Amino acid sequence: MFEILFENADLIAVNKPEGIGAIPEQNPQEPSLFERLCAERGETLLIVHRIDKDTSGVIIFARNAEAHRHLNMEFEMRRARKVYLALAHGVIEGDWGKIDKPLARFGSGRVGVNAQHGKPSLTEYQVVRRLPAHTLVEAYPKTGRRHQIRVHLYSVGHAIVGDRLYGDRAIQRDYPRMMLHAKRLTIRPPSGEEVTIEAPVPQSFNDVVDAAAG
C-alpha cells in the first residue's frame, strides 16, 4: 500500500518510496509505482510527470482525460511549483543561489551541461542546514529537465549524496540511498483551486542526515 497524500475527482498524489520506478521503464525488474497503483486502486490512471527511481516524494497521476490535459499543461507552462530537499556533498557558502546552465542528454543515459546543444535549465536553491562536510538544501527547479537538480548541483561541485550516476562512485556507493526528496508540489487542478501537496521526509533520509551531522 502506498501513502496517498491527496486525492480528488481529477488527480491522486502519492508519496513514492525511493528505489521504485515511478513509471514503466524499458527494462523493468519490477512493476513501476504507476502499474502497482493502478492495480491497487482498480483504476486506469494517466501519467502526468515523473521523478527519478532513486528519488522519494510527491508524484501525481490524473484520473481522467480532461484532468490529464490540464495537468500536463500546468507542468509544460511551468505553473506547477516544485520543492525538493537534497543533501549535497561539501559545505555551500552562500545562503541562496541559482544555477542557470543548459542541459543535454547523452547516449549513456547521463545528462550534462552543454552550452551549445543544451536546453535552458534553471534551478534555485536555499541552504537549510550546514553540516561538517555536507549541506542540506531546498531546491526549486524552474524548468523540468531530466536529472536537472542532480546535474546542476554536481556541476558546481556539490553532488547529491548517494547519487551513483553523478559524483565519485567509490564514495557514493557507501550511502544507502540517493538523498533527493520531492518534498512539495503546488498545482492548480481543473477545479481552479490551487492545492499544495507535501510528502513527509522519510526516515531513510533523516537517518543519513543525522549520521552526517555526527
What does this structure look like?
- The protein is α+β, with helices and mostly antiparallel strands and 214 residues long.
- Helix content is 21%, strand content 32%.
- It has 5 helices and 12 strands.
- It has helices at 33-41, 65-76, 148-155, 169-172, 203-213, and strands at residues 3-7, 11-16, 46-47, 56-62, 81-89, 96-100, 103-105, 111-113, 122-130, 134-141, 180-187, 195-198.
- Strands 1, 2, 3, 4, 5, 6, 9, 10, 11 and 12 form a 10-stranded mixed beta sheet that branches. A two-stranded antiparallel ribbon has the order 7-8.
- The relative contact order is 0.19.
Strands, helices and their partners?
Layout: E1 3-7, E2 11-16, H1 33-41, E3 46-47, E4 56-62, H2 65-76, E5 81-89, E6 96-100, E7 103-105, E8 111-113, E9 122-130, E10 134-141, H3 148-155, H4 169-172, E11 180-187, E12 195-198, H5 203-213
Parallel strand pairs: 4-11
Antiparallel strand pairs: 1-2, 2-4, 3-4, 5-10, 5-11, 6-9, 7-8, 9-10, 11-12
